[in-house]
Each structure stands twice: as structure tokens, then as C-alpha cells.
Amino acid sequence: MTLFQNQVYEANFNYIGQALIKAYDTKKENNESTTELSNLIKCVNEMHMFVVGLKNEVQVLDFKLKIAEGDKLRAIERARKSEKLLENDTTIRRKEL
Fold it and tell me: pLDDT at position 94, please?
């Protein structure tokens, strides 16, 4: 998710949340049942928490991927160094191979 996409998501979430709270307060002032709106607010909140969890998982996986890529590059570099050492090896055993 890009920064712009995240900002759009947050703006939309806040807009929906504010509209639901306003409707909830209006119904409460008029002594009407607020059960349905209360449930909608809970649902939207749970959806938001789910998205936040997904975003956190993506960050963790990105971090793990960067670590794995770094490990891979270090292993490649070690292999190249070992290969150079073997190429420069002038022992009899190396010549026999």
C-alpha cells in the first residue's frame, strides 16, 4: 500500500466513522433504537483493526525479506571469495583435480 493509498483509506474510514457516530447521536437524542448503528460502528472498527493487522504483517514480511536478501548477498560474496582463493591455490592437490 502506497502512502497515498493509505491516506485515502484513512480518510474514508474517518468519514464513514464520523457519519455513523453522527447518526448514532441523532438517534440517541430522539430516543430511537441505536442497536443497528452500534453494530455497524463495531463492524467498521473490526474491519479497521483487520486492515491494521494486515499492514503490520506486510511490514514484518518486508523486513524478513530484506534480511533474507542481505543473507543471500553475503553468501554469494563469500562464495566468490572462496572461488578466488581456490583459483589462486597452487598446491599439488589443486593441480591434480
Answer: 53
Domain ranges of the chain: 3-96
pTM above 0.70, yes or no: no
User: What is the Cα–Cα distance from 33 to 50, expressed in whole angstroms?
Assistant: 28
Asked if residue 28 lies in contact with residue 34, where contact means CB atoms within 8 angstroms, the answer is: yes
> Cell 473490526 belongs to which residue?
46
Q: Which long-range contacts (CB under 8 A, 24 or more apart) does 43-47 make?
A: 44/13, 44/16, 44/17, 44/20, 45/17
CA distance 63 to 65: 5
